[in-house]
Amino acid sequence: INIILTKDNNSYRSFYNALLHEGYRDLAALLQDGIPAISSSNGKSSMDGMTSYVKTILCEGGVPQRPVVFVTRPKLVDAIKQKLCCLGSDPGWVTVYGMAGCGKTVLTAEALRDHQLLEDYFPGGVHWISVGKQDKAGLLIKLQNLCSRLENDSTLSQRPPLNIEEAKDRLRLLMLRKYPR
C-alpha cells in the first residue's frame, strides 16, 4: 500500500480494479471510498476526437486493447515511442523483448495510443500481428491474412500465397514498394 500511495491516482485505481477482478471484492470494498475521482478536462471535445481517431486506427489494425487491470509505466512507454519515432527518418524495426508475461504487448500497444505518433509516423495505419509459437499451417494463415490486409486497396485481386516462401516474398515486395516506411 505504501508503494501505491507514492504513485499517481491511476495506480490506486489499477490496484482497486485488480482486487475486484482477481476475486478480492471484500478488500476492494474497503478501499472503495478512497478511489480518486477522474477529472474531466476542459478540452474534452478535442480529446474525444483524438480518442476516436486513435481507437479507430488501432482497432482496424488489430492492436490489443488496454487490459482491465493496467498500471502505467511512462518511462518504458516513452522509450518505445522514441524508438518508433526514429523509424520516420531511418526505416527499420523496433524489437521489444523480455520474458513471457512481462508486459511487452501492453507496453507496445500503449505507446501506439498516441495521436501525434500515429498521425506523424503511421499515416497508413498500424497492422498488429501476434505470431507466438505456430506450426507451419498456422504461420501460413497469419501471413496470408497480413498479405490480404496490406493489399486491401490494391487494384489487382491476388490469390492468397500458397506456401510460406511465397508469402514471405509477397510481404517483402509489399513492404519495399507499398510500405517503405
From TrEMBL:
Q: Which Gene3D superfamilies match?
A: Death Domain, Fas (1.10.533.10), P-loop containing nucleotide triphosphate hydrolases (3.40.50.300)
Question: Mind telling me which InterPro entries this protein's record contains?
Answer: DEATH-like_dom_sf, NB-ARC, P-loop_NTPase
- Offer one example of a GO biological process linked to this entry: apoptotic process
Single GO molecular function: ADP binding
| Superkingdom of the organism of origin | Eukaryota
| GO cellular component: a single term | cytosol
Give every NB-ARC domain span: 75-178
Q: What is this protein called?
A: APAF factor
Which organism's genome codes for this protein? Calonectris borealis
Give the lineage: Eukaryota, Metazoa, Chordata, Craniata, Vertebrata
